[in-house]
Structures are given as structure tokens and as C-alpha cells.
Amino acid sequence: MPAPADARCRIDAAKPAFQPSLPAARKALQETGRLTVVALGSSATAGSGASAEDKSYPAVLQAELRRRLPGAEVKVVNKGVGGQSAYDMLLRMQVDVIDEKPAIVIWQTVINDAIRDIGEEKLAKILSKGIGKARAAGVDMILMDLPWLPREGRYPHYDEYRAVLTKTAQEQGVSVFPRYALMKGWSNSRQFTPEELLGMDGLHLVDAGYRCLGLRLADGIVSGIGNVRIETVAPGVKPTN
């Protein structure tokens, strides 16, 4: 029985569902019974605004995936560093993502690039390089759309940077998690008070918002993986094909 807050997270369920293509994740579960996800990002991934570490979206996502994939060994690694740009994250893609040997990386980025207005062409190149690195390593990537902000007019080129992310993802064949549309829907639904979703800075989510983010990501990941027979593997035992 979902808690009331969880039900509110799915008020727009009738809209086209987020269902990413996750062949590496499906294969990992089938062959090893394990699923590792790396959450790469800035302050929204690190959990700025959350009341505790286990209230961040990666922590919620891990708990939800473990609940929904019984028998699987699930780990979500939080690699969020506040204030970082897309280029900062590209520089740590090898050590913080690929070296963790995940099946999925969720890349939450661009917000700081939009605020600093680094240049749209430059951003597109950075995103393409990051996607290429993940693809070469056999990692499924999910790009996270920018957040909906009540006062996004403070950033004159915000929509243009969102468009760069969307266009690059389309060109590279990468799934985009629709954070902007979801957050706007939650706010417009009047099911949440403004204080439940965003902190006093008008920029970072707080607990209820992060929980919704983790739940909806879990919805999409489980849907994208599809029905899979999970082989439970004892620690230290190499799975057989």
C-alpha cells in the first residue's frame, strides 16, 4: 500500500511513460543477478536540500530497485558533487563511473552550465563525449532533464540549454528522464505545497521531491529492463551461462 506521497508522485501516469532502453542492465541481471547503477551529477544528485543522506534520490532509487527486483543484488552509487559542470563530470567519467563497472549511469547535469552560460556548442560536445565514453564501456546511459524552477527566468538561456541536452540525447540515441515535465506537473497538481518540493533557495528539491524523483526513476528502470529471470549468485561464485 503506497504512502500518500508516493501516490502523488504518479499523478501524471496517463502521460507517455518513461521507458529507457537498458540492454546492459537486462543482461547483467540475467547473467549475474546483479545491477549496479551510478548516479553522476551535481548538487541534485548529492542530495542538497534533503534532510538526511537516505532521503537523496539515489538512496530512494536503491531502496525501490531492491524492493522491486527481489533476488537481485542492487547497488546505486552516489557520485554527486555540488557545483560541478558537465565538463567537471566528464573528467571523472572514467574513475567515478566506468571503474565502478555499472550497467546504468544516470547523468544529471547541465544546470550549472546553463546558469554560467558556457556556450551551447561547447556543451553539446561535452555531452557527446561523455555519452561516447559510457557507450564504449558497455554502460546504459540515462540523461536527466533539467529541473523545473519557479523562477527560471533568472537564467535567460535556460530553455536553450535544455534543448541542447534533448537534441544531443536524440542524436546519440540516449534516453532522457523527464525531470522538468514531472516537477512542473507535481507543482501544478496542487497535491504538494511549494515547501514540500523545493527548498527556500527555489533551486533544490527537498525530501518529498527527491522521493518522487527516485520512485519515478525506479518505475522507468524496471519497465525498461522488462521481465527478466534473475539468477541469484552466491558471493564469490562466478555465474555460468
Beta percentage is 5-15%
Poorly predicted ranges: none
CATH architecture: 3-Layer(aba) Sandwich
Strand segment count: 5
> Biggest β-sheet, characterized?
5 strands, parallel
For the record, what is the CATH homologous superfamily label? SGNH hydrolase
Class, according to the CATH hierarchy?
Alpha Beta
Number of helical elements: 12
Query: Mean pLDDT, as a whole number?
Result: 88
Q: Largest sheet, order of strands side by side?
A: 2-1-3-4-5
Report helical residue fraction: 40-55%
- Structural class call reads alpha/beta
- Coarse shape: globular
- Termini separation: 37 Å
Number of separate domains: 1
Order of helices and strands: HHEHHEHHEHHEHEHHH
Radius of gyration from the alpha-carbon trace, in angstroms? 17 Å
CATH fold name, please? Rossmann fold
What does this structure look like?
- This protein has 241 residues and is an alpha/beta fold.
- It has one domain (4-9, 19-225): Rossmann fold (3-Layer(aba) Sandwich), CATH 3.40.50.1110.
- Helix content is 47%, strand content 12%.
- It has 12 helices and 5 strands.
- It has helices spanning 4-8, 23-32, 43-46, 57-68, 86-91, 93-97, 111-116, 120-136, 158-172, 179-189, 194-197, 207-225; strands at 34-41, 73-80, 104-108, 140-144, 175-177.
- Strands 2-1-3-4-5 form a 5-stranded parallel beta sheet, sandwiched between helices.
- Helix 4 (57-68) packs across helix 12 (207-225) and helix 8 runs parallel beside helix 9.
- The protein is globular, with a radius of gyration of 17 Å.
- The termini are far apart.
- The mean pLDDT is 88.
